[in-house]
Amino acid sequence: MILTVTPNPSVDRTLEIDAYVRGAVLRIHTAMAHAGGKGVNVSRALRNHGAQTVAVLPVGGAEGAQLTALLGEHGIAAVTVPVAAVTRCNITTAEADGTTTQLNVAGAALSEAEVAALLRAAESQLRHRPAWLVAGGSLPQGAPADFYVRLSALARRYGVPIAVDTSGAPLVETVRAGAADLLKPNHHELAELLGRELTTLGEVVDATREVLSWGNGAALVTLGDCGALLVEPERVWWAGGPPVVPRSTVGAGDSALAGYLFDDAAPEDRLRRAVAWGSAAVSLPGTTIPGPGDVSDDGVVVVAEPDPSLPVSDLPAKLGSGAARSSA
Ligand SMILES: Nc1ncnc2c1ncn2[C@@H]1O[C@H](COP(=O)(O)OP(=O)(O)OP(=O)(O)O)[C@@H](O)[C@H]1O
Ligand SMILES: O=P(O)(O)OC[C@@]1(O)O[C@H](CO)[C@@H](O)[C@@H]1O
Questions:
Q1: Ligand 2 atom at minimum distance from 287 CA
Q2: Entry's SUPFAM superfamilies (predicted)?
């Protein structure tokens, strides 16, 4: 079983439009709602592929009730912690050319008692010794920036490895405390964390290893349409898939993380699956999370110890060839 904790979940609303025009009246082709939040999406991806998972999350108000109902529709086993604040709705516009714009709400405040209740709910599931704890997303107001560090301490008490996918202050707190066995930043979050531009593959790998040297285990660094890196202290792999016509990129990173964690395969096979699941998510509308029928790892190329001098933006073109495939 894989346990996920999403302190700031959302009802994700997606509006499909031709093109975004500021100040205009825009006609929506399709509007849809999905259960969202990073940990929730990881649970959805795992569940779609038949893996056991439990999602822990706070819910409040009418949107909280809708989120609970959506989780039920997705078949997710959820431990919901009732809170006074109304669960947020995040809005995405998905344009016909594949541009995805996310409007993410801060999320209403949790009280100290509600934060403590969320940690207790997580601990009650950790007693079942899940294979992984996945902690994902931003933190709601009222949750301390070191929330994931506290969660990590709990996970370690039960011998459960923890994967963390967050950004901003909670990411700083987590990595500085060496609290993660696996990190899932994208390269922009990594650049923001270290306060420097990361242009080449070598710069991304060095930056990641700097973060690992603070006591974190390994990192799955996703690179959007340029694939993903799996970085360990001594080894590194890159993987990229064939070009995809994007429909909505929301949930691609979560699907990639779920693909990585799905089972205990060799690192390069986990990375291949991460990229296959992430790429599949991009071609699906809204926060639709792929299942086995959507995913294929045909054409996903994995390269061990890729050339550090390559610009990240050149990776699919330079490494995604048949010639590179043999070096995996
Ligand atoms: N435009 C794209 N075309 C093809 N594959 C993509 C594209 N965007 C993302 N992917 C795939 O999905 C994976 C995760 O994407 P990305 O780096 O955007 O994650 P993220 O920023 O964490 O996303 P999110 O927070 O929305 O879940 C990538 O490693 C890649 O395999
Ligand atoms: O605001 P956060 O917590 O950083 O991100 C929340 C979110 O954008 O992440 C998921 C996609 O990864 C969406 O389902 C959700 O709306």
A1: 14
A2: Ribokinase-like
pTM: 0.96
Please determine, for the modelled complex, whether the ipTM score is greater than 0.95: yes
With a Cβ cut-off of 6 Å, ligand 2 is lined by 8, 10, 12, 36-38, 41, 90, 102, 104, 137-138, 250-251, 253-254, 287
Q: Among 38, 100, 138, 188, name the best residue to mutate to test ligand 2's pocket (greatest count of ligand atoms within 8 A of Cβ).
A: 38
| Predicted confidence (pLDDT) at residue 270 exceeds the cutoff of 70 | yes
pLDDT tens string 79-125: 999 999 999 999 999 999 989 999 999 987 999 999 999 999 999 99
Lookup: tokens for 133: 């704890």
Backbone region of residue 139 per phi and psi (left: phi > 0; alpha: psi in -120 to 50; beta: other values) = beta
- CA 149, distance to chain mean position in Å, is 18
Q: Could you tell me the distance, in angstroms and rounded to a whole number, from the CA of residue 234 to the centre of ligand 2?
A: 31
State the Cα–Cα distance between residues 186 and 9, nearest whole angstrom: 19
- C-alpha 10 to ligand 2 mean position (Å): 7
14 contacts 32 by C-beta, under 8 angstroms: yes
Instruction: Enumerate residues 6+ apart whose C-beta is below 8 A from 242.
Output: 279, 299, 300, 320
